[in-house]
Design goal:
- The protein folds into 2 domains: 281 residues, Aldehyde Dehydrogenase, Chain A, domain 1 (3-Layer(aba) Sandwich); 192 residues, 3-Layer(aba) Sandwich (Aldehyde Dehydrogenase, Chain A, domain 2).
- Helices cover 39% and strands 20% of the residues.
- It contains 16 helices and 20 strands.
- Strand 15, helix 13 and strand 16 form a beta-alpha-beta unit.
- The chain is globular.
- The structure holds NADP nicotinamide-adenine-dinucleotide phosphate and magnesium ion.
Length: 497
């Protein structure tokens, strides 16, 4: 690779285990079948580690353990201050092991170490610390019902939560799911993505070290249709939270009906990022780049449809293309890298397929447009940051989620055209607006049907602010106090006075 990076010895030993076991009922166990699978370093295509391959039998053991921990264990019953203390300890442990976790994440997923170290890991710690703060602040109501009665509400955990997460932010997605679930007193069966199982397993060790009791969090590594499907079907699991593709989200929605699980879905997107001619152009160029190339474009809310007012279109597209071509691509573990490889050979093929589709549809790649096979990168899954012009909003590259470093630049005439085209998508996860006109910013932010709208910024996140989809981008809001609704249910208690 030509990159001499000193790995944390803890990372070396973590990946060296013959088989990384999964966490069930507080024990590190191999799969019932004895099978295991490989996870690959996408910068090199080499095997990084072997991991236990859980399936329905392992999910059953995990679900039973989580059920026992919920029905009879301490976690939902402990004093809130004690549960809070455990989650704060977990946040501290994540920070103490920040370098190790960032390296592990980068090796498994491919993302630039600058991003795992500055975004994923600190945001994961933040998430646990924030939800720790909610533990003793979730109150019920007293209701002014018939005066012959006293009616009040109790806010109770949902029970056993199945959580299925994707590979684009493996540790952070685990934190977004586990933080609120645990704060509310639930127990969990978590399935990380097969491409990136390692950081969730390391997090499992830290959870135990922080004092999360056995069975409260079970981490079952394995494949979607087998391990994931078993979670969705399991009768002892009360709720499923899923982040991933819209296609799988729909299947989960259908399957979960049999056991009437509560479901929350955070799915795909094809988010419009709208630049008006009156915008701060330099800032908008930077925002357009960050909006689409952050995390190699493997971001559900990426601003992949870059709408630019016609009078600014050519100049703007050129500026974005120049900056994209100048981005430093390489192995994520290299601290200089700005854009890493895609997560897997499969994802490389998918994204490369869309590059061909775009060209066949008549779009022009004014930057990138191909795999990056520069010396040292040939065996990794690198795609050049790509900027397409000559795109119409009805082309496949403007309608389908590519999930790679590919942006489609599309011109618009005026405000209403921008809103019409922006909303002309099955998705509704996020949107961006760039303008110096405050009234226009407000109008467009209201008119866009998306769960998040960024004005003169893009991809800004904080654990305090809600995130989730409109339309086929899913439903339910993660983060902030909104997420507590997904992990609690309300009991109404009547007492005769
Ligand atoms: P995916 O299949 O939706 O995977 C997401 C998670 O769901 C993984 O843990 C996966 O397990 C699991 N899963 C897959 N099939 C399942 C099933 N039938 N029942 C239960 N769980 C199941 O996503 P992908 O195939 O990795 O990526 C395909 C496309 O999805 C991407 O190109 C992108 O467009 C989109 N995507 C979106 C997001 C997002 O954040 N919204 C994240 C990732 C991908 P395994 O990985 O072990 O199979
Ligand atoms: Mg991997």
């Amino acid at each position: 690779m030509g990159v001499a990076v000193r790995l944390d010895p803890a990372v070396e030993s973590f990946v060296a285990a013959p088989v990384r076991r999964m966490l069930i009922d507080g024990q590190w166990v191999e799969s019932a079948s004895g099978r295991s699978f490989e996870t690959v370093n996408p910068a090199t295509g080499e095997v990084l580690a072997r991991v236990a391959e859980g399936d329905a039998e392992d999910v059953d053991r995990a679900a039973r353990a989580a059920r026992r921990a919920f029905d009879r264990g301490d976690w939902p019953r402990m004093a809130p201050r004690d549960r809070e203390r455990v989650l704060v300890r977990l946040a501290d442990l994540i920070e103490r092991h920040a370098t190790e976790l960032a390296q592990l994440e980068t090796l498994d997923n491919g993302k630039a170490i600058a991003e795992s170290a500055n975004v994923d890991v600190p945001a994961a710690a933040d998430t646990f610390r924030y939800y720790a703060g909610w533990v003793n602040k979730m109150t019920g109501d007293t209701i002014p019902a018939d005066p012959a009665f006293f009616n009040f509400t109790l806010r109770e955990p949902v029970g056993v939560c199945g959580q299925i997460i994707p590979w684009n932010f493996p540790l952070l997605m685990a934190a977004w799911k586990l933080g609120p679930a645990l704060a509310c007193g639930n127990t969990v069966v978590l399935k990380p993505a097969e491409q990136t199982p390692l950081s969730a397993l390391r997090l499992g060790e830290l959870l135990l070290e922080a004092g999360v009791p056995p069975g409260v969090v079970n981490v079952v590594t394995g494949f979607g249709p087998t391990a994931g499907g078993a979670i969705v079907r399991h009768p002892l699991i009360d709720k499923v939270a899923f982040t991933g593709s819209t296609e799988v989200g729909k299947e989960i929605h259908r399957t979960s009906a049999d056991t009437l699980k509560r479901v929350s879905l955070e799915l795909g997107g094809k988010s419009p990022n709208i630049v008006f001619a009156d915008a701060d152009v330099e800032g908008a160029v930077r925002g357009a780049l960050a909006g689409v190339f952050f995390n190699q474009g493997e971001v559900c809310c990426a601003g992949t449809r870059l709408f630019v007012e016609a009078t600014l279109h050519d100049q703007f597209a050129e500026a974005v293309a120049t900056a994209a071509s100048g981005m430093k691509q390489g192995p994520g573990i290299d601290p200089e890298t700005q854009i890493g490889p895609l997560v897997s050979a499969e994802q490389l093929e998918r994204v490369a397929g869309y590059l061909d589709i775009g060209k066949r549809e008549g779009a022009t790649a004014i930057a990138g447009g191909a795999r990056n096979t520069a010396p040292g990168l040939e065996r990794g899954y690198f795609v050049q940051p790509t900027v397409f012009t000559g795109v119409r909003n009805d082309m496949r590259i403007a309608r389908e989620e590519i999930f790679g470093p590919v942006v489609a630049v599309i011109p618009f005439r005026d405000e209403s055209d921008a809103v019409l085209q922006g909303n002309d998508t099955l998705y509704g996860l996020a949107a961006g607006v760039w303008t110096r006109d405050v009234s226009k910013a407000h109008r467009v932010a209201r008119a866009l049907r998306a769960g998040t709208v960024w004005v003169n910024c893009y991809n800004v996140f904080d654990v305090t602010a809600p995130f989730g989809g409109y339309k086929e981008s899913g439903y339910g809001r993660e983060l902030g106090r909104y997420c507590l609704d997904l992990y609690t249910q309300t009991k109404s208690v009547w007492m005769r006075i």
